[in-house]
Please model this.
Amino acid sequence: MSYAEKMEYVTLNNGVKMPLVGLGVMRVQDEDCVSYVKKALEVGYRLIDTARVYYNEEYVGRAIEESPVPREELFLTTKMWITDAGYEKTKESIRDSLKKLRTDYLDLVIIHMCSGDYYGTYRAMMEFYEQGKIRALGVSNFGPERLVDICLFNKVPPMVNQVETNLFFQQHEFHDLMKKYNVHQEAWGPLAQERVMEIVNHPVLKELEISMEKLLFKLHLDILYKEESQLFQNQIH
Model:
């Protein structure tokens, strides 16, 4: 069975199915990005996470177009940056992302940061959602107060909140709040980014690795994986 066939999915609050593991492309540029994404698709990744501020959407789009994997099997995410904030600017930015990614629709569009006129941004995203150009809406780096606010005062509440989550920052209380509002937690930095060597050298994890006969990183991700609604991405950043 291939990695793609073994992929697990979570159902978001609007019924859209999303892979539980995905690939982020921060800091990957030009032809390296094309090769990176194509190889990921070849080995079985189906969720690709990019962003306006990564400046590589056109290369992700090329990789997807050149890959033999059908578009309908993929889950494509992009994120609106601070400079995209506001109703009109966001509409323009979404159209630009669709063009660069060479697709007629996006599976998930996320507000990257809770800054600027993010309410205007969310209104524009809802319009594209209602037109079928976006399949799911999300936010990123939204704290509890801002998340609850955007859930309660919009016709379409977000399906995803992408926040830092790893063994050193597990966010249990926030996770419970997201479950209460039926928002799925998607982790960035699941391997703790710059602290990755602390995972490699952590004495407790080393003991568990031996006793449970699991590779250390697999063990680490399995611990995060215990909650179906706690998504995470195997991202470069």
About this structure: Confidence is low (pLDDT under 50) at residues 210-214, 228-232. The longest strand covers residues 75-80. Residues 30-43 form the longest helix (14 residues). The domain at 3-195+225-233 is CATH 3.20.20.100 (TIM Barrel).
